[in-house]
Amino acid sequence: MSTVMNDTAFLAKGYTISTDKSLLDFDVIYNYLSTESYWAKGMPADKLKTAIENSICFGIYQHNKLAGFARVVTDKATFAYLCDVFILDAHRRQGLSKWLVQTIIGHPELQGLRRWALATADAHGLYRQFGFTELTNPERWMGIYQPYTI
């Protein structure tokens, strides 16, 4: 497991993590995912609203203002897919992404799962710290990819 700054250090800087969806700033999340991310560029707003409604969402806030986000698609028994993870530029390089992933992995509703999955183009080092590895037997995995039209 990764060593991250403890909760007290983040709390002292005004940061909190919450799964309360009423605190999420949809406009900030939508702007980042649909215009800045490489994985969800062009995502329609209605698709994101549905995705948020049907996921466990984690917001990082500094003084009640969104600083980062992630969501988990899961059955809460056997499988979880970690996705849409980001920290806004102004809040990067403080260890917040590590704190976020640590919080997600430790969430009470996500314990005892048989498998976690995620996809990343550039954050392998972050996720390896928490036990993620390349897929075992990738030849067994299949998918359908239908990109958003921009």
TrEMBL record:
N-acetyltransferase domain segment(s): 15-147
Swiss-Prot/TrEMBL keywords: Transferase
One Pfam family per UniProt: Acetyltransf_1
Recorded coiled-coil stretches: none
Keyword Transferase in annotation: yes
Repeat is among the record's keywords: no
Database matches in InterPro entries: Acetyltransferase_Butenolide, Acyl_CoA_acyltransferase, GNAT_dom
One GO MF term attached to the UniProt entry: acyltransferase activity, transferring groups other than amino-acyl groups
PANTHER family assigned: FAMILY N-ACETYLTRANSFERASE, PUTATIVE (AFU_ORTHOLOGUE AFUA_6G03350)-RELATED (PTHR43233:SF1)
Protein name, UniProt field: N-acetyltransferase
